[in-house]
Amino acid sequence: MKSDTALKSDSIREPQQKRSIAKKKRITEAGIQLLCEKGYYNTTTVDIAKAAHVSTGIVYSYFKDKKDILISGLDMLSEQAVAPLLATFQEKLNLSDFLEHMEDLLDYFVDFHIKFQSMHQELGALALSDPDVNAFMVKFEKSLVNTLPNICISHGIDVPNMYEKIHIAFDMVENYCHEVVFYPDEAMDYVVYKQEILSCIHYLLLGSEHAK
Predict the structure, then answer these.
(1) pLDDT tens digits, residue range 137-163?
(2) Is 3.30.70.2660 the CATH number for 74-210?
(3) How confident is the model at residue 180 (pLDDT cuts 50, 70, 90)?
(4) Using an 8 Å Cβ cutoff, are 78 and 145 in contact?
């Protein structure tokens, strides 16, 4: 006799009709919101079903378990998040008034972290213990960062070791956002911190002959 898990896996289907597709999307949206707000271990599939206004059986007809809902929700959010981030980078990256445009971009990244604050914190904790969540986080970062060198080149910025320098810049921006949003330090002057990061990025991407 098959286990409950096996039965659930065998019964999972991919919706074809608009109504079913909308229902799965509703479950995904309700799930990712609950999982990030209440925490992964404090949320059950029953909670998600209730929030999505469907039965638990309907949830299991589309998903194996709550982790499956989480990953589906993360895929959905990454599609919604990566494109605007890249579009903003494309728009803001400009050799004319470079520092001003990069400051606008840095502020955008801070706002992005604020918008997805609960999700970011929950995923950061889960990534330490769950290989699937960790793999998603790595994939998300790569899908974002690996596109940036081509955008830089399209704007006339083409320096040696571009890939490595973009990663260094990205790590600095991430660390700045995390400090400002999640772990503010009262002793830190974040105006100065921001300007130092912008100067470093300016040096990395434009070279010492352009540094101010």
Answers:
(1) 888 888 888 888 888 888 888 889 988
(2) no
(3) very high
(4) no
**Distance between CA atoms of residues 53 and 14, nearest Å:** 19
One-letter amino acid for residue 179 of the chain: E
CB atoms within 10 A of CB 79: 10
pLDDT tens per residue, range 59-96: 999 999 999 999 998 888 877 777 777 887 787 777 67
Q: What is the CATH number of domain 4-64?
A: 1.10.10.60
Q: Are 106 and 198 in contact (CB under 8 A)?
A: yes
43 Cα distance to chain centroid: 21
SS3 129: coil
Q: How many CA atoms lie within 13 A of 42 on its CB side?
A: 8
What pLDDT is attached to residue 113? Answer: 86
* Amino acid found at 110: V
Domain ranges (residues) in the chain: 4-64, 74-210
